[in-house]
Design goal:
Layout: E1 15-22, E2 41-47, E3 53-54, H1 63-69, H2 75-78, H3 85-97, E4 106-110, H4 116-122, E5 127-131, E6 147-153, H5 162-172, E7 173-182, E8 209-210, H6 213-222, E9 226-229, E10 234-238, H7 246-250
Helix pairs in contact: 3-4
The structure holds zinc ion.
Zinc ion binds near residues 10, 13, 47, 49 and 215.
Protein name: Methyltransferase family protein
Organism: Jezberella montanilacus
InterPro entries: SAM-dependent_MTases_sf
Length: about 250
């Protein structure tokens, strides 16, 4: 039985049960592809203050559970772009944003999977490393050093422990650094007293933590970080804006 009165992992205020979807709800429904129903209900709770919406079920899953039930051989069917298309597009996007500035940048791609995006950037002369805490491995993040640009693209929504994520990111972040990250915010798509039909709220893709703009601001503030958003899906946490990035924060 889910406890509908537990506390929000971001602002520690009350959360309430919000909605329930089938485990096999996937982001590919947005492209017209529907998996058969799994018959497994996944509940999402929503914070009554910051509107963070998350699936408490997954906070008790082990790494093995995630590997067997979500990030398994069938994962590519419901996220066909993750191996090649998205890393390529993201590397090109970063190159364009920081054109002519790469000599100032010490880059870490956090949650970078097989490291494809980082490899593409290195081929363009960037200093770039990739680190992924999942699945568990021998690399100690603290030994990689500090980075003035950390990217974390389509990672936040997959994370069951958002505080652990922020501890890791801020451990690796240089004082004059930026965290550029992508995750779609819920503000225009999840509303009180409405059913959650939003394509992005998909357990089968491992989308278990869904952020409102306010919840991102509060999460960043906990770590002394400001939030700038460039769109509903692309954001930046920062303390001090380095000169090589001043052109992007001005436009936020
Ligand atoms: Zn909250």
């Amino acid at each position: 039985m889910l406890n509908s009165f537990s506390k929000c992992p971001i602002c520690y205020c009350d959360v309430k049960l919000f909605d329930v979807v089938d485990f096999n709800k996937s982001c590919e429904e947005n492209r017209g592809k529907f998996l058969p129903l799994a018959g497994i209900p996944i509940y999402y709770s929503r914070c009554t203050v910051c509107s963070f919406t998350y699936a408490p079920e997954f906070t008790s899953w082990t790494e093995q559970d995630f590997l067997e039930k979500i990030y398994n051989d069938e994962y590519i069917e419901i996220d066909p772009d993750y191996l090649e298309v998205r890393p390529g597009a993201n590397a090109k996007g970063l190159s364009d944003i920081f054109k002519g500035q790469s000599q100032h940048i010490h880059h870490l791609d956090y949650g970078g999977g097989n490291g494809r995006m980082s490899d593409l950037l290195k081929a363009e002369g960037w200093q770039s490393k990739s680190y992924d805490p999942f699945p568990k491995n021998d690399i100690d993040l603290a030994t990689l050093g500090k980075f003035n640009l950390i990217t974390s693209l389509e990672v936040f929504e997959h994370v069951p422990d958002v505080q652990a994520l922020m501890v890791n990111l801020t451990t690796a972040l240089a004082d004059d650094g930026l965290i550029l990250f992508s995750t779609l915010i819920t503000d225009n798509d999840i509303k009180p007293n409405q059913r959650m039909t939003w394509w992005y709220a998909s357990p089968r893709n491992g989308h278990i933590s869904l952020f409102s703009r306010q919840s991102l601001m509060m999460l960043g503030a906990t770590y002394g970080l400001n939030l700038a958003s460039f769109s509903d899906g692309f954001h930046c946490f920062y303390k001090n804006v380095p000169a090589w990035a001043s052109h992007i924060i001005k436009t936020a």
